[in-house]
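Two proteins follow. First one:
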Amino acid sequence: MKILLFGRDGQLGTHLNESLADAAGVEQLSGYGIDDLDLSHLDHLRQVINDEKPNLIINAAAYTAVDKAESEVELATKVNAEAPSVMAKAATALNAGMIHYSTDYVFDGTATEPYSEDDQPNPESVYGSSKLDGENAVLANCKNSLILRTSWVYSMHGQNFLRTMLRLAAERDELKVVGDQIGAPTTTRALTDATLKLVQYFMLNNGFSTAVCGIYHMTCGGETSWCGFARAIIAASEFSDTRVLDIPTADYPTPAKRPPYTVLSNKKLFDTFGIRLPDWEAALSECMREE
């Protein structure tokens, strides 16, 4: 079993790289980070995959600068849509499988209950549109694939909401955080643990059967606002005296439009694979203990 991992140095990729290296049945793991391979260079990407000849491609790489994407449409599209298309076509040519991560931002956020995989995507940002195009490219070009949509990803490493809140709390007595966007914060550790179970399934079944291929939602359980998430972070930190104030999205304008509600239903993931991620509060506590 040979796995080719893209995004090795990113938030999720770092945890995946560590865990896959020790996973039973993985004979060889090749990881590529941003310093090794620019995913916008599609010919180089294609050559790497053909040289590596993996049994399974895991794509944890993405263009994730949501606001910057509004002015870097071509780059976001290359990394989030065209590169996954190249990966999917190469995987099929090699008779390999593929796991690809996507985002809650493929939805417009107008729902009032958790989105299922059957709900119609309607992204309202360049980032969301490019990720949806990537989903469609993978599904069209690699039948032996899983698309894993997740949300509000964070860890104690890299650039993310958790680390930003801790940095700001060390500098200020008061934080103002948007309270009318609702989602499910999800740790890279929880995502990695769940992904490892899917990798084991792949190895035991010599691939992802037609019956299980497709899109799955994979987030921690429960829901909260960015402000609620910030309050939980601060309460569990050494800066617990810092005040966290709730503000509306209108008071914090950004180039990219954010969906107001993107809680994802994980029922299909549990019904198909028996996988359930921890609730977001428990995952946050575990994450902060890793510091």
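Second one, unrelated to the first:
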Amino acid sequence: MSAILLDGSIVHYEVLGRGRPVIFLHGWVGSWKYWISSMQVASTSYRAYALDLWGFGDTAHVETNFTLTQQASLIDRFLIEMGIGKVALVGHGLGGLVALCYAINFPGSVDRVMTISCPPTIEGVNQRLQTSAPGDLVDWLSNRTAESTAALADASKANVQAVTASMKGLQADNLYPNFRILNIPALFVYGETDPAISVPEESAVTSTLIHQIVLETSGHFPMLDGSVKFNRLLTDFLALESGASPSELQLKEEWKRRVR
């Protein structure tokens, strides 16, 4: 286990590979662990980092740090501490919100953003996800295979107050509108059968540099439900030229069928 200390509190992370940096950010249920497959794939060409946010996994539970702004500040301080420059951010659920918040506050430090199962508004979040303990949601949200159970083993470590704070932030902050005015390429990915996050209207999130893709056979965890397909999309996105619109991905027949 790798860790750094920020204000005397432990921040846990893992890293694989060499190359341009990619930061993987987990969601409300689980920890860095469900990114292992994606990190392994990305690490063949990139330096892949995954960290546990405040209140999750093996990172400290510091209640004053549970807001989206403080979680984004964690990313900033982590990058400074590790000497990392401009990055690609890949965030799932909560991690997607943190990625957007970080990009809004530090746009010059972000090359591109990929969010997965990330709600543009609180109305897109199922009430069960908002009010239940994360450890109680694994069976509801996953495909219940031995692999997904192992990947989500840290769900019970999640602090409910960290979840609540992020939901309040989503309700209060205009993350999507504020992000859309930035000149940062972004790909928003949703699972068509996700019981927790509703697929938004494309017009609500897309712009010239922002593209949306719906994976037809995936639920809340596309990286676990169909890791081969998801990782192929991930590598295609990361391989785009800097500044290129993710809409170019739809030129590939494989993704044309999944564009909404």
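SUMMARY FIELD: The beta strands are 2-6, 9-16, 20-25, 46-51, 87-92, 110-116, 186-191, 210-215. The domain at 2-256 is CATH 3.40.50.1820 (Rossmann fold).
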